[in-house]
Amino acid sequence: MMKPRISPDRLWGRLMALGKDGALPGGGVDRQALSAEEILAWRRVIAWGAEAGLTASTDPAGNLFLTLEGKFPHLAPVVAGSHIDSQPTGGLFDGAFGTLAALEAVTAIAEMGLTPERSIAVVAWMNEEGSRFAPGMMGSELFAGLRTMDEVMTVRDADGISVGEALKSVHDAFPDVKRRPLGFAVHAYIEPHIEQADLLETTGAVIGVVTGIQGKKTWEITISGREAHAGTEPMDRRQDAVKAFAAMATKMHAAMDVDDLVKFTIGRAEVQPNAPSVVPAKVAFRIDLRHPDNDLLDAFGTRIEEIASAEAGSCGVSVRRLVDAPSNGFDEGLRSQIRASAERHGFAHLDLLSAAGHDARQMAPLTRSAMIFIPCRDGLSHHPDEWAEPAHVAAGATVLLDLLLQEAGVSFNQGDA
Ligand SMILES: [Zn+2]
């Protein structure tokens, strides 16, 4: 038996074809979670999987699995993939690359008539992006037991449609796709993804060996003051929510200006009543804080909450924690395999930390997990111009195939490798 090889042309052709589902007029895609466009994308990848003999299944969380059954189906499967939903102005590679690279690697095994010892499941997680239904990573968080079905299914989009309703329309569109219970034991999880930053590009590396994902905390802070006439209310009697917000924002930015690794953002602020001649009664704002060091992340988080209480002035303040995800490290054994594979194929590789969140963060506490990054042009992502070179796409899938052969136990004649 020869060693299986991926088909770079087939993988590239499929990436381009998937880009038609939700295609934007000027390039890129709008294929948000559980949308009609994502149903089209499901149809496409399920058909491609069927050609290779993979069985499609879906769980109550709306995750999609395409499984190549192993010799010993009772053993925990190896799972590889990513997501196929996108931002409203997304590119062709974020998520899609990981799921289609996994599909390509498994297809390469299946089309040679090889049967792995363990089953291999290609996954497309539900709502990674979180743009239509916030927050993202719903499918992998449900799979990992980090959220309850109730709290996820009742989340509504801007049109008032709930996750539960949208998911029902997806499931109804696929009556023949097998239903499976939520969650199962996984032998190893591997997620290929574009880097979404430019470290690989600037160093000339092709394969990123992801050491971990930096931790993230988010808050919604609400400052409550009192509306009053901007011309008559004495300054010393005002409960001006914008004044308090400005003080908090300034202090927080100053307090976070400690090292190059901390990333602190106030990305949204809503003022009420937002009228030019009314003393503002309320400001609700969001904070996104990230740092690779968990102790520092916790310390900065505490500082933010202290500043929020201390700088409210004459206003009231409420602090609500939304996301509290520590940094995680990926499995050293899988990372060594990625490096070894890259070296065998002559792909320059680089160890790097993922600054962005991925579904692999949820999988890492459950099972040995890893991520394989490939470069994307100028580090640009979440943008219609997002681009990865065909050779890099092929390289990522080639390395993934090596890991799947090893992890799922595929026998072939090493002499032909
Ligand atoms: Zn992604």
Characterization of the model:
Zn(2+) 1 binds at residues 83, 94, 193. Keywords: Hydrolase, Metal-binding, Zinc. It comes from Xaviernesmea oryzae. Zn(2+) 2 binds at residues 94, 129, 382. With 417 residues, the chain is of the alpha/beta class. The chain has two domains: 8-213 and 328-416, Zn peptidases (Aminopeptidase), CATH 3.40.630.10; 215-325, Alpha-Beta Plaits (2-Layer Sandwich). It contains twelve helices and 16 strands. α10 crosses α12 (390-408). The mean pLDDT is 96. Zinc ion is lined by residues 82-83, 94-95, 128, 193.
Please name the defining characteristics of this protein.
single chain; 417 residues; alpha/beta; Aminopeptidase; Alpha-Beta Plaits; 2 domains; ten-stranded mixed sheet; four-stranded antiparallel sheet; 16 strands; elongated; binds zinc ion
Tally of distinct domains: 2
Question: How would you name the CATH homologous superfamily of the largest domain?
Answer: Zn peptidases
* Topology order in helix (H) and strand (E) letters: HHEEEHEHHHEEHEEEHEEEHEEHEHEH
Question: How many strand elements?
Answer: 16
CATH topology of the largest domain: Aminopeptidase
Q: Number of DSSP helices?
A: 12
- CATH architecture call of the largest domain: 3-Layer(aba) Sandwich
CATH class of the largest domain: Alpha Beta
Shape: elongated
Helix content: 25-40%
Sheet with the most strands, sense and barrel status: 10 strands, mixed
Bound molecules: zinc ion
Roughly what fraction of the amino acids lie in strands?
15-25%
Rg to the nearest angstrom?
A: 23 Å
Give the end-to-end Cα distance, rounded to a whole number of Å: 10 Å
Low-confidence stretches: none
Which class do the helix and strand fractions yield? alpha/beta
> For the residues shown, what is the average pLDDT?
96
